[in-house]
Amino acid sequence: MLSLKIVAVGDRNVGKRCLLRSYVDGQFPNDDVKNVSNGYKKDIEFLGKSIRLVLWDINVEEENARLRHLTYPLTDLFLLCFSLVDQNSMDNIEKIWHREITRHCPHTPFILVGTKSDLLDNNMLSSHGRCSGCVRTKAEELCKRIHAFKYVECSSLIRDGLDNVFSVGLHSICSTQTPNGDENEEEQKEVKNCVLM
Questions:
Q1: What is the SS3 assignment for 81-93?
Q2: Burial 16-45 (b: 16+ CB within 10 A, else e)
Q3: How do residues 60-92 score in pLDDT, each as one tens digit?
Q4: What is the Cα–Cα distance from 40 to 23, expressed in whole angstroms?
Q5: What would the pLDDT profile of 144-169 be if each residue is shown by its tens digit?
Q6: DSSP class per residue in 110-172
Q7: One GO MF term, please (predicted)?
Q8: Pick the CATH number of 2-187 from 3.40.50.300, 3.90.440.10, 3.90.76.10, 3.40.47.10
Q9: Residues contacting 95, CB < 8 A, separation 6+
Q10: 115-146 b/e with 16+ CB inside 10 Å = b?
Q11: Based on the number of CB atoms within 10 Å of its own CB, is 112 exposed (0-12), middle (13-18) or buried (19 or more)?
Q12: What are the CA-CA distances from residue 162 to residues 25, 75, 90, 115 (Å)?
């Protein structure tokens, strides 16, 4: 069975651990997710292949900041996570998380994940008074600036978009397209030797 390592990065309280737990367990976690392991496994079928996803939530505590890059080697995919209702977490994708993963794993694909979409849709305004459409437009612009493969949204609470996060992520691992679906032939990436294809 093929094993793929997927690492979720982003600020504290953006919902990384709930995203992973809801996807693995099939329901929103009822326990205190802060007191649970950082690693999870889920066996899936994708493109006719059996795959074991090994999912990691990176500890963002200040005292671990200098050590967290030690978790990055052999990562197959990064999920750059931010909360749709927390502008600072979106800003830190570019300031902290994108820089960190591209410095340590420059050839590893990554997608941009907006979490807590249920809160944005329910409130229609983010915590900073921005409309949901404005937040989504800013997220799409960020996706292009950092050359993420794609931007996706999800809600761990209502389990909306979780399967799509991982489907898009797995497609990014084997994609022959440039980031964001740019189909310019001159900029096509070299096809990866990917066993999923």
A1: EEECCCHHHHHHH
A2: bbbbbbbbeeeeeeeeebeeeeeebebeee
A3: 775 577 788 888 999 999 999 999 999 999 999
A4: 10
A5: 999 999 999 999 999 999 999 999 99
A6: EEEEEE-HHHHHHHSB-TTS-BHHHHHHHHHHHHHHHT-S-EEE-BTTTTBSHHHHHHHHHHH
A7: GTPase activity
A8: 3.40.50.300
A9: none
A10: bbbbbbeeeeebeeebebeebbebbeebbeeb
A11: buried
A12: 12, 20, 19, 10
Residue 27 has what DSSP assignment?
S
DSSP annotation of 74 reads T
* Tokens found for residue 95: 């300031």
Query: Hey, where are the domains in the chain?
Result: 2-187
Sequence letter at residue 26: G
What is the rounded radius of gyration, in angstroms, for the C-alpha atoms of the chain?
A: 16
**Distance from the Cα of residue 83 to its chain's centroid:** 11
Contacts of residue 107, Cβ cutoff 8 Å, sequence gap at least 6: none
Provide the token pair at 184.
Answer: 């310019």
Q: What is the pTM of this model?
A: 0.84
